[in-house]
Amino acid sequence: MLELAILGLLQESPMHGYELRKELAAKLGAIRAAISYGSLYPTLRRLQAAGWITEAAESPATTEEIPALTSRRGRVVYKITAEGKERFAQLIAQTGPETYDDTGFGVHFAFFARTDQATRLRILEGRRRKIEERREGLRDVLARAAERLDAYTLELQRHGLDACEREVRWLEELIANERSGRAPTVPRTGTAGGRREEISPPPPGESRKERP
Amino acid sequence: MLELAILGLLQESPMHGYELRKELAAKLGAIRAAISYGSLYPTLRRLQAAGWITEAAESPATTEEIPALTSRRGRVVYKITAEGKERFAQLIAQTGPETYDDTGFGVHFAFFARTDQATRLRILEGRRRKIEERREGLRDVLARAAERLDAYTLELQRHGLDACEREVRWLEELIANERSGRAPTVPRTGTAGGRREEISPPPPGESRKERP
DNA sequence: CCGCGATGTATCGGACCGATACATCGCACG
DNA sequence: CGTGCGATGTATCGGTCCGATACATCGCGG
């Protein structure tokens, strides 16, 4: 999972570890808190050893402009390789059981913009199936074993059940949306129109997304 | 966390590993899928080594009734010790940062029936604080970094934000409920009364809860 | 000038998972 | 009658990831 996430992020732009962690936290903030360095650095090393990423030189184009005033220290900038891109494409397209658990689904979903529609659909449906199973499990417990459990435990199950139902509905909308029409956005409360707004009129000032 | 959960469950009744796993899945089904044996058995051994639990003999009172027809195999039944109960009491009352993450909170909450009210309140408020922070983080990303992210990532954040807001509201109700009055149940949609119903009229047929 | 918070790299022990192996039991199906 | 299969049951191994910790640099304000 971490491997996939790192490869995905580095595909957008080269980064060093610290930055990677922050971007990861921003992109996956809804899923998991923040990746630990104890996972990050070993994984970076592993990816490098496998040849998916390489260390990039620090000040690349404008070699002599800035360094005088910052005197770049030992920041290690990583960059994805061609093999790394292949690896990413392979990882993002292949689905196993771990694709549908909370973290796995979150990571895959976060990179849906780089995933083909068939795979997106497969993942969304797999996730829905999994959540439906969890939901049924919770319903069973609430229906059948309620008298064995105390009120707090029961309340916990109810809250979990609620979350399941909610997520299934969310997934339904995404799936419908995905199937016919191609807009990623779920219709917000009451907005019925088919017109999907593209997100940003090109931001005027700072655009540091991709390197040209 | 596993340690706490096992100690808590064994406090209700002695069990063997397999049973423990199933009960755990039932009690924490809203939180986590099912504990792996690769965690369970080593932990059981650790707890036994520490003296918190002991192996109990298989057929305890009615020694010769059943064994003829089932010929009890190597099931290892574990039982909590007096020290184990102390340990549980200590673990359930002490709160660290890990008490407020998803799993930690879930486990603590599942044993709220064995937790004193002050601790319950502390945990609920700590959890609320943590979720509020997560919520603010997501709002920040959605407000400030929206144009840097693709529509799918954005949708993920929105869904996460929604879940946060929902959980905060849930916690608010639980906290209010906890503060004045002592009923564990959150008022279900429209049910305004103060009367809290006790759950089960004694179920007539099969009662295989505790061992006699 | 000095401390302090942000930036930045790195390691270590431990918790937990997923796959796997293996043995027994009861029952359904041929 | 046997036989095979799914549930019950115990156990280990490798791998992923976390949390704590250490350490070094930078810019800023007191």
In short:
The structure is a homodimer of 212-residue chains. By secondary structure, chain A is mainly alpha-helical. The first copy, chain A, has helices at 2-12, 17-27, 37-50, 67-70, 82-93, 102-110, 117-144, 151-179; strands at residues 15-16, 53-56, 77-80.
What's the architecture of the domain at 2-60 and 75-95 in chain A, going by CATH?
Orthogonal Bundle
Low-pLDDT regions of chain A: 60-72, 190-212
> What multimeric state do the chains show?
homodimer
The coarse overall form of chain A would be globular
CATH class annotation of the domain at 2-60 and 75-95 in chain A = Mainly Alpha
Number of distinct beta strands of chain A: 3
Gap from first CA to last CA of chain A: 29 Å
Summing up helix and strand content along with how strands pair, one would put the structural category of chain A as: mainly alpha
How would you explain this protein's 3D organization?
The structure is a homodimer of 212-residue chains. With 212 residues, chain A is mainly alpha-helical. Among the domains of chain A are: 2-60 and 75-95, Winged helix-like DNA-binding domain superfamily/Winged helix DNA-binding domain (Arc Repressor Mutant, subunit A, Orthogonal Bundle); 116-179. Chain A has eight helices and three strands, in the order αβααβαβαααα. A three-stranded antiparallel sheet of chain A has the order 1-3-2. Chain A is globular and about 65 Å long. Residues 60-72 and 190-212 of chain A have low confidence and may be disordered. Chains A and B meet through helix 6, helix 7 and helix 8 of A and helix 6, helix 7 and helix 8 of B. The first copy, chain A, binds a DNA duplex (30 and 30 nucleotides) through helix 2 and helix 3. Chains A, B: Residues 179-212 are annotated as: Disordered. Chains A, B: Residues 6-89 form the Transcription regulator PadR N-terminal domain.
